[in-house]
Amino acid sequence: MATGRDIYLFDTNILSDMMRYPEGLAAQHFMVAVKHKPDARFCTSVVVQCELLFGIRRRTHPRWQTHYERVLESVDVLPLEPDVCIHYAALRTLLESAGTPIGPYDALIAAHALAANATLVSADAEFLRVPGLRVENWLAEENQF
After folding, report:
1. What Cα–Cα distance (Å) separates residue 97 from each residue in 34, 75, 91, 93, 94?
2. FRET partner for 68 with CA separation of 20 to 30 A, picked from 27, 30, 99, 117?
3. Residue 4: what pLDDT?
């Protein structure tokens, strides 16, 4: 799944922020990244897509579907492939045996980023416990462009 170009895999909290605040910090980071890294690939996991769609179903206002569609126009949704499963099993085993587990959905998202050799873009500090995972927080004020 890995390629020779930069790959950014967005977590739920980043895409949700881009949906809520089209001019917000995450959206600004995205625009700068698109401009300065034209060969980069911007994507998310199908697991994140499931979480977003669940959130939209819980809200009744149709604008959320519109915001979702607008944001997902610029982002590829990656399916779960067999190598993600291998990373997931190894990661959950490692973190649980170390006494530092993360949630099962977050473990799948982290495994997806590892399998894709992607930088995970997330504001969730629990991903910092994942060995070998590159993480950028596009919602942190100190992480300016």
Report:
1. 39, 34, 10, 6, 5
2. 117
3. 54
Mean per-residue pLDDT over the chain, rounded: 92
Domain 7-136 maps to which CATH number in 1.20.120.140, 3.30.565.10, 3.40.50.1010, 3.20.20.190?
3.40.50.1010
The alpha carbon of 144 is separated from its chain's Cα centroid by a whole number of angstroms, namely: 19
pLDDT for res 2 = 44
pTM of the model: 0.91
Give the DSSP H/E element, type plus range, for residue 111. helix 104-115
From residue 58, give the alpha-carbon distance in Å to each of 50, 69, 142: 13, 16, 33
Torsion on CA atoms 110, 115, 117, 120, rounded to nearest 10: -20
